[in-house]
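Data card: per-record layout.
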Amino acid sequence: MPSKIRVLVVDDSLFMRKAISNLLNSDPKISVIGTAKDGEEALQKISELNPDVITLDIEMPRMDGLTTLKEIMRRKPLPVIMLSALTKKGAKETFTALEYGAVDYVLKPSGTVSLDLKLVKDQLIAKIKTAALTKPLMHKTIKPSTVAKSFDAEDKVIAMGASTGGPQALTEILSRLPEDIPPTLIVQHMPEGFTRFFAEHLDEKCQFKVKEAENGDQISKGLALVAPGGYHMLVQKNGRILLDKGPRVHNVRPAVDPMMFSVAEAYSSKVVGVLLTGMGKDGAKGMKAIKKKGGATIAQDEETCVVFGMPKAAIEEGCVDIVLPLHKIPIEIVRRCRG
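The structure for this 339-residue chain is written out next.
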């Protein structure tokens, strides 16, 4: 990778193109090498400039962001960061973009033209730097062919954690699991407000109920709970959810470690821990706690991770039972729950 990360900014708003460019150029390791006002111009600029990373608006004239993204992934996959609105429509489009191969997304603070874009400056810069290190995964349509008719499992609890690349990984895994899934807890690093949309997205794809966790929820078979943005999700020994506004862990809230610690403490050897793609080390200590209590631990392999950070950290802790490519994880979850 060159000394500076070369970025192409794509947005139909002249103000937003300038604002995003100014924010990114303020970092000494990033250089905006061009801008485009729509998808057609973006594809031309990509061919001419060969950027390292692209920021891509979703709502644009002529060729919208999703169509542009599909074309980028068809021609020559590059790391793409989507800029999205915090709306139900924006969320649906964002999850579609992630399934098409976008690496990550940043929420515009106040809609399509955000005068307060500086509020997400640090997040945008950090995600550009992460994206530059990733390998975009080719778009493939997720076919939710169930890996088994039934879990046929008693007394198990599934604990799953993910970050960058997680929405698409979790969608692929969960959409292939049978409807009698054991109680399942999911932590995906995601901002406040967006986790509800993500839970609704998963609920549409899965054979069981998926919802954003609320304080006091009872974990149960056939139910997967997604930690709400802004809260750590803990489970108590009575099976009730406790949402915690405590300090950030690994600079995030929700974090995977607190959830896994609580599950390991409450359910010991009955836990199946799953750690997926993501930057950093969140979840490694949690997986270690699950393993120490006699639970089973599964990590996603490097080849299918968007970012091989969190699984790698757990593997280095020596607490992972098995490392698998994404498509093999659903059947392994079923196997471990039956064991």
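Known properties of this structure: The radius of gyration is 20 Å. The chain has two domains: 5-131, 157-338.

See the next section for split statistics.
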